[in-house]
Amino acid sequence: MRKETQKLLILSLLGLVSVNLAAQQKIKRDTIKNIDEVVVTALGIKRQNKALGYSTETINSEQLLRTQNNHWTSALEGKVAGLKIQTAGAGPLATPRITLRGDVSMSSMGDNQALIVLDGVPLNSRTVGTGTPAYGAGAGGDVPIDYGNDLSSINPDDIESITVLKGPSASALYGSRGALGAIMITTKSGKTKNGKIQVSLNSYTSFDSVLKWPDYQYEYGQGTMQKDKNGNYYYSYGVSPDGVNTGSTSSAYGPKFNGQSFFQYDPNEQGQSKERQLWRPYKNNIKDFWQVGTTFSNNLALESSNDKTAFRASLSYLKNEWMMPNTGLEKWGAAISVDHKVNDRFKANIKLSFNQTKSDNLPATGYNNQSISYFMIFQNPNVDLAWYKPIWKEGKDQVDQIHPFSSYIDNPYLIAYEMTNSLDKKNIVGNVSLSYQINKHFDVLLRSGMAINDELRTQKRPWSSANFAQGYYREQYVNGFNFNNDLMVNYKNTFGAFNFSATAGGSTQYFEQLTKDYYALGLKKAGVYSLTNAVAQRFDLPQPYDKMVSSMYGLASLSYKDKVFLDVTARNDWSSTLPKANRSYFYPSVSSSFILSDIFGLKSRKFNFWKLRASWSQTGNDTEPYQLLNYYNPSLAFPGSVEVSNRYLNPNLRPEMLTNIEGGMDFSLFNSRLTYNITAYQSNSVDQIIRNVPVLWETGYTQRVINSGEIRNRGIEMMMNAYPIKSKNFLWNVSANWSMNRNKILSLPEEFNGEPYTYASVGGAVYYNAVVGGSLGDLYGYGLVYSPDGQVVFGSDGLTAKPAQMKKIGNAYPKWRAGIQNEFRYKNISISFSFDGQYKGMAYSQSHHKMTEQGKLVHTLEGRDNPGGLIVGQGVVQNADGSYSPNTKGIPVSTYYGDYYRRANVETNTFDTSFIKLRDARIAYSFPKSVTAPLKITDLTLALFGKNLWMWTKFPLFDPEAATLDNATITPGIEMGQLPTSRTIGFQLNVKF
């Protein structure tokens, strides 16, 4: 009997039979990597993993809920090969940019994101911005705010699993919507037995602190190397007996802190001190502004199921107080799921969720006066943070703020408590699925889903703020509706050794969004924020965004003896964003898998499984609405009027077409204790939609939109999962992934005449230029000039030589990424942790430029003690005869750093973004039945967890995963007023009864 049990266990490990009861006594099923596991594929169709001819990866709910996150997508980071989750470092909502296998389109930085599918229904992940750029200092405008998108409304506690369909072959049945891969989310349903009711409580408490700070210097104070009549460096807030005013600068090239006394700012006088005060640094005058953030989250779920009905309902609440004072959010959620078997043939499923997100204030980001990042850049070492706390000058509440050093630098507490950005967002997501078994071969499925969102956003700017002297108020309304229908007929049959199944169907997707903006330009009465209190009103014409796609599709699957599998798919889309002649476009795909271990009889206890897979697909990528005909646009220069666009749109636009080839192998060894897979792929995207093609001014336009250009992506992905130790009381599971992607631009429009095509830029300094032979993500800007032997060239004035043309500085994307996860279980104790990181990649930092220019960082200390405060740049000077000689010209330290690291010098302000992060860690204890049974509790678990606990990087600012929120677009590779990244430590309580 014992030998038979062992045989059954071995067979189950090979995925040939189910694990029987006797085997379960020896080993837990959840520790076995079963090759026959069922995964959710395109259109929500469930398939055996071994039948798939393309690569997928699945994350279960346990992995997703190990740490608390304001946005559930961050739990995927580092765990899936080829997947990148990138946020803009813009506050607690942490809206992600989700990409799979790199960028394939030059249309826009925002057009390369994966499709998100919830219970088979595609969602909209479009983000609506505030219409403001990341760089706006001195322009008098506002700043970007991360208000999130529909993805933030998904409650992670309701998620059962996430399947990642990485390439077009995997998501071909989604047509243009799945051309860039898909994230398939399956939510939970009731799973109890015999109709028993189970109640689950999942409760988190977590605390956030700043992960990494810039290397601030506190050896020298405010000033510009001014000397008094005795030739000594001095400081004076306003004119004083010591000399002229030196206290209005934002630079820190003043006297060294060495026990001197100067006339400084006195908060009691709200002006110059009556007596000289000790010249001293305030070393926490930036860090102390930030607080320990807190998040409290509770999720209560009720579920029950029997042979006919499965039911689940949940309620959730999350309250976050972010690290910046007076910022944070609250979320409420409710969800219900019902699966009911009406009879042996008819089944119905209904899922509905409601979520509301509210915030009195979300932080602004970017490089402009209203951003706290701007204040942190301009804060000087000799300024006490407490001087700003009263906010308003005495007797001038809501009228005149305290900002004693520059009218361009707003008070940080004014930014936090008066410049508020509120949000009230409601989301409803639901779907109904009806399936009917016509006979043993045919069944039909009808599925309808919808997502509705309603948002009210406000921005308040008080009197005396730098960009709005008489205040400002704005109301922004965003309403969206996303409706999807699918009708599918499924057929399956067996013909001897052959199994055949087929699906044919059609779908429609209709999406509409409307944005309305109302402005109060100036406030009649200070502190009263309403449109009726406006000095002048402005109303922008409503901005619609409507799109419809209708589709027909089919899938045929054939298998031979469960050893050879073949899938063929076809889909045709009709998109409203394309002209009638090009509106219809067809996508085919073919994929196959071969179970070589079965075909060649190679199975043994050591060698369990070997699969070869290959696929080819062609998919398309349509465009945004309103790209065919020119319309009048609202005029910003003359509110209430309209103007003609300077871009000639294309009435003959075609979809971008993406052809993908993929191959790989899967292995399982040592009774599935070790599994490994490797995938190689190539995708070519042609007919790129290029929006900035120059035209003659005589046409009345400056640009036009065309189809042209080709981009190629090649890459390799590897995944490994192992159980080095697996016994009755102890288990060690380790999984790792590695991926690389190489992007190459193969062709561009002839109209560019070999010149670069700029498809994105931020701040007028950094440009994403496309050049034949280059890559998407290439960063261009001005840099240093070098002599033939590689030395920096200086001019006769001691400043760096200025180049005539921009050059490639680097690429925003890394050479490769990797992640590793470990889990240990000893009896009732489990410990898990994961590391991930990347090699190379570059990012430009606006904050580094400005803080270096102003002498705020430690590396600017070099040369300050030189005679006369002069520094000689290391390099050479070009002589009149063309030869080079060493540079000997000394210039003031402040002038040197201001020039060498000027904003336009992208090269000296761009840094390697290689990093390693301890992404998450968790230790949990599950109480034994001897404790839980008397309490009538089925499970009681306590856990301590952390996220972003440690990081290694040479990137000098907050986070090497730098990106910029530029209006609504998350642009990687550029840091433009980034907010700090958080380190999280928390506690979790999970109870089931």
UniProtKB/TrEMBL annotation:
Compartment annotation: Cell outer membrane
Pfam families: Plug, TonB_dep_Rec_b-barrel
Membrane topology: Multi-pass membrane protein
Gene3D superfamilies associated with the record: TonB-dependent receptor, beta-barrel domain, TonB-dependent receptor, plug domain
Residues annotated as signal peptide: 1-22
InterPro entries xrefs: Beta-barrel_TonB, Beta-barrel_TonB_sf, Plug_dom, Plug_dom_sf, TonB-dep_OMP_SusC/RagA, TonB-dep_OMP_SusC/RagA_CS, TonB-dep_rcpt-like
Domain of life: Bacteria
Domain TonB-dependent receptor-like beta-barrel: 408-949
GO biological process: siderophore transmembrane transport
A GO term for molecular function: siderophore uptake transmembrane transporter activity
Record PROSITE patterns: TONB_DEPENDENT_REC_3 (PS52016)
All copies of domain TonB-dependent receptor plug, residue ranges: 52-181
Main location: membrane
GO cellular component: cell outer membrane
Entry keyword set: Cell outer membrane, Membrane, Receptor, Signal, TonB box, Transmembrane, Transmembrane beta strand, Transport
Protein family according to the UniProt entry: Belongs to the TonB-dependent receptor family.
Cross-referenced NCBIfam families: OMP_RagA_SusC (TIGR04056), SusC_RagA_signa (TIGR04057)
Protein name from the UniProt record: TonB-linked outer membrane protein, SusC/RagA family
Native source species: Chryseobacterium taeanense
